[in-house]
Amino acid sequence: MLITHDTRCSLDAVVDLVNTAPEEDGADGLADVAALGDFARTHEVSDVGVLTERDLADVHRVRGRFAEVFANPEPAAASTIINELIAAAGTTPRLTDHDGYDWHIHYFAPGASIADHLAADCGMALAFFVVAGEQDRLRRCEAPDCRRAFADLSRNRSRRYCDSRTCGNRLHVAAYRARRKEATA
């Protein structure tokens, strides 16, 4: 699957956005407006303006809908959610070449809120996966104590963990120790 730079940036943003949601007894990665500002800077979300509590609440709502896409293996259900997000954002595709980047497409309307910006650009990134029949690449970590979202961009679609160095390694070490313990018993 060919993924353009813009789509990859939006895909990274939506994965990180979904992963800011608090898990059971966990902290919210977007607990306040300052954290939302940091998220916007980290993901180079353009045309943000001054962020408010309303922006934060709207982004939390969009984040919840994106989480539903990662939880929903059915393309029809995922496409309904994506369509609703994109339509509510007032999508206005336009070509732009700002801030030293080559020509690319913005799907959000000029002056859109950060929630609409994320809904439009990230929604389109997810839409490309559904259209390409690649929605199964939008996954949750298989580690029992982790449910972080990720996009499996491996050639053979074999990625099972959000991070092989943490979740994957931890489970492989646990399995190795269990085998050793069983062998000595």
Shape from CA axes? globular
Helix content: 40-55%
Distance between the termini: 48 Å
The total beta strand count reads: 4
Structural class: mainly alpha
> Measured on Cα atoms, how large is the radius of gyration?
18 Å
Instruction: Report the major sheet.
Output: 2 strands, antiparallel
- In round numbers, the mean pLDDT is 88
Low-confidence stretches: none
Strand/helix succession: HHHHEEHEEH
Biggest sheet strand order reads 1-2
Strand content: 5-15%
Helical stretch count? 6
Structure overview:
The chain is mainly alpha-helical and 185 residues long. The chain has helices spanning 5-18, 33-42, 53-71, 75-88, 114-131, 164-184, and strands at residues 94-96, 104-106, 138-140, 149-151. The strands form 2 sheets. The chain has a two-stranded antiparallel ribbon. Strands 3-4 form a two-stranded antiparallel sheet. The mean pLDDT is 88.
Short description:
This protein has 185 residues and is mainly alpha-helical. It has helices at 5-18, 33-42, 53-71, 75-88, 114-131, 164-184; strands at residues 94-96, 104-106, 138-140, 149-151.
List keywords for this structure.
185 residues; mainly alpha; two-stranded antiparallel ribbon; 6 helices
Topology:
Blueprint: H1 5-18, H2 33-42, H3 53-71, H4 75-88, E1 94-96, E2 104-106, H5 114-131, E3 138-140, E4 149-151, H6 164-184
Antiparallel strand pairs: 1-2, 3-4
Helix pairs in contact: 1-5, 3-4, 3-5, 4-5
